[in-house]
Write a structure and sequence with these properties.
Length: about 180
């Protein structure tokens, strides 16, 4: 019996690796704005499973996934401008969507691994905005639930390194790299 080779991946990824952005432009010309103050972030995909057991399964249960639903649960520190007191525009657009109907109740969001790994998605979502409240010495935090409206699409991570690793070009007329570094 052989011993399996230990995995090379020995570091644990950090939860803060995600970045959440909101489209503050239009559907055809998106302008991505950071949603600041994320303290907790939990993306989910939940399958709907329907029983598909037949006699052929010989008494064993069998199920089939018939639908997927995506969502994001986040806790935000409610950000405001230090001088004017105005709330952050991206957070405010999310809050206002939670109080509307029809197309005004949805937001276009994307999230991705801020370290450039391939995990990156975007989609439209409905918003639930729930202030946490608290005591006089507490910070203003909000629980935000983004419930997918339609598909969550895989996208190219906007901070991913270019394919092939990119090329470094150094312009130093007639000098070697060693001379430039000195």
């Amino acid at each position: 019996m052989s011993t399996p080779t230990p995995p090379a991946e020995t570091e644990t990824a950090l939860a803060r690796r995600y970045r959440l952005e909101l489209n503050t432009g239009t559907d055809t010309t998106p302008v991505w704005s950071l949603v600041p103050g994320v303290q907790e972030f939990a993306p989910k995909v939940e399958p709907t499973q329907q029983k598909s057991t037949t006699y052929d399964d010989e008494g064993w249960a069998n199920s089939t996934v018939t639908e997927l639903a995506w969502s994001i649960e986040a806790k935000l520190a409610h950000r405001c401008h230090p001088t004017t007191g105005a709330f952050n525009a991206a957070q405010e657009k999310i809050r206002l969507a939670s109080e509307n109907f029809g197309s005004a109740s949805r937001v276009h969001v994307r999230y991705y691994d801020r370290e450039g790994r391939p995990e990156a998605y975007e989609g439209f979502a409905l918003v639930t905005w729930e202030p946490d409240g608290g005591a006089a010495d507490d910070l203003d935090t909000v629980k935000v639930t983004l419930t997918g409206k339609g598909p969550r699409k895989s996208i190219t991570n906007p901070v991913a390194p270019p394919a092939g690793g990119g090329t470094l070009t150094l312009a130093a007329a007639g000098k070697s790299l060693k001379e430039v570094a000195a």
